[in-house]
Fold this protein.
Amino acid sequence: MIKQIGPIAANPLALPSIRNHQDQDIFQVILMSLAKSYTDLGREQPPQKDKDYLANELADSLPRKFPSIRLHEIPLAFSNGIREKYGTFYGLSVVTFEKFIEAHLNSEAREQQAKEALIPKQNKVPDLATQFEVAKGNALNAFQDLRSGKEIISGSVVYGFLDQLGLLQFSVSQKWELVEEACLSLTGTFQQQLINTAPMIKREEIQRKINALKDRSAVDMIRNMSKRLGTSAFFKSCMLEELDLEALIEERRERFFTLNKTTHEN
C-alpha cells in the first residue's frame, strides 16, 4: 500500500516538490502509476523486474530533470500521456514517460497553476495570544503523544517554543550529548533502511546520508533530531517529577508576549 502523500491543496503547486520526498515514496508512486498505465491501456503487465527497472530509472531521472514536479502529478501526467492528450506515443519506455512529464509541465493548465502559486497570499498574521495558544496546544499534544508511547513528530518545533519560555535548561555538555545521540539514532535508522532497501532503490543516497552523519555535515538533520530528543528528555523529566506542563507554560505567558512583541509589530 502506498503511503498517503498528503492532502491536495487548493493549488497543487503549494505542495512540496518531488525533491522533498523520500526515494521510497517516489519509487512506489511511479511503480503504481506504471501498473495503472498498462491496465488502462488493456495491455498485459510486463514482468515485475521490468517494471522495477522502469520505476527505478524514472525515480532517478525525474527529480533531476523535472525538480518542480509534485509527486501527485506523476499519475496524472502518465494518465494523460497514454490517452494521447500530449500527442501520439510509440511504446512505453523511460523516455516515453519522461516525455509525458515534460508535456504535463508545459501544459496550459499547469502553467496557470504556476501563475496562481506566485500570487502572494494576504494572510493576516495571528495575534500573539493566538500564537501562544497554538504553540501551547502543540506542546501539550506532543506531551500526550509521549505519554501514549508515540513518536513526537513535532519535537523540533515544540523545542523552540519551550526554549523560548526558558523551560529548557540543558547545559552545553548535555546539548552535545543530544547531538551524539541524534547521530546514533539517525545512523541506525538509515542503516536499517540500507538493509531493507531493494537493489533498485538508490542505495547510494542512503549511504550519503550515513556518511554525512559521520562527518557531521548533515547539520539540519542532526539539529532537528537533537531538538526532538531534547523535547522528549524534558517531557520525561516532567513525568518523573509529576509536574503540570500546562501550568508551567501558562506561568511564562507574559515572557512569550514580551519576547515576541517587537517581531509581531514589525
Notes: The radius of gyration is 23 Å. Residues 172-196 form the longest helix (25 residues). The CA atoms of residues 130 and 136 lie 10 Å apart. The chain has a mean pLDDT of 86.
